[in-house]
Amino acid sequence: MLANAPDLDLFLPPGFPNNALHRGFTHSLTIAILISLALNCVWRIAPSFWRSAIVYFTAYGSHLLIDLFTGTKIGWTNSGFGIPLFWPWPQKFSSPLILILGIRHKDFASLFSLDNLWAGIYETLTFGAIAAVGFVLWKRKLKSRILGKPKLKSRTNRSTSEAPAHLLPNLQYQKGEPSTHLSKLQDQE
Predict the structure, then answer these.
(1) Are 57 and 36 in contact (CB under 8 A)?
(2) Distance (Å, rounded) from C-alpha 38 to C-alpha 50?
(3) Which three-class secondary structure state does DSSP give residue 96?
(4) What confidence tens digit (pLDDT) does each residue in 75-122 have?
(5) 136 assigned to some structural domain
(6) Cα separation of 71 and 119, whole Å?
(7) Is residue 176 part of a domain?
């Protein structure tokens, strides 16, 4: 939800022609930092203040990163829409490399156009593949953590053959006949 928060400027009152404030101040690092700190004060999702703030900032900032690479044509086209990354400075920034097709939303008809359908399919396939690879890598890491940890053995359930070698002579003398006990241990192994 937080990654989509910068686009809440689309829901401004209809008095703003053609979404004049879209990709405005909500698409800046200033607002990303302020929202991250404010949300962190309300609801901390990580053990420390700064870890939680970084998680919020990463979620919000992911939208800004995607919008930096959004434009009208894919490739080295310099067709990006641009965002005011360092608002209140009015300069807009965009990557010359466009990786994501922008959605057209100037009116109701363009919102449900074929161009937007293809853009949605492209984004779903692209980010779905990235998410799938990330999920597989995360599961492998989790599985290696689980399987990599040695299992703890209870000392009371340990058989005498697992006892350290320097303790075996003591065990033999405590139980009585050393020769018969030693032969039993050797038979068990």
Answers:
(1) yes
(2) 12
(3) coil
(4) 888 888 888 888 888 888 888 988 888 777 667 777 778 888 888 888
(5) yes
(6) 11
(7) no
Residue 164 falls inside a structural domain: no
Q: Is 157 helix (H, G, I), strand (E, B) or coil?
A: coil
155 within domain boundaries: no
* Structural domain range at position 36: 2-148
Render pLDDT for 114-171 as a digit per residue (tens, 0 to 9).
888 888 888 889 888 988 999 999 898 888 888 776 555 555 555 555 555 555 555 5
How far apart CA 99 and CA 74 sit, in angstroms, is 5
Amino acid found at 57? F
Please state the domain count of the chain: 1
Residue 93: φ, ψ to 5°: -120, 145
- For the entire predicted model, the pTM comes to 0.59
Contact indicator for 94, 115 with CB cutoff of 8 Å: no
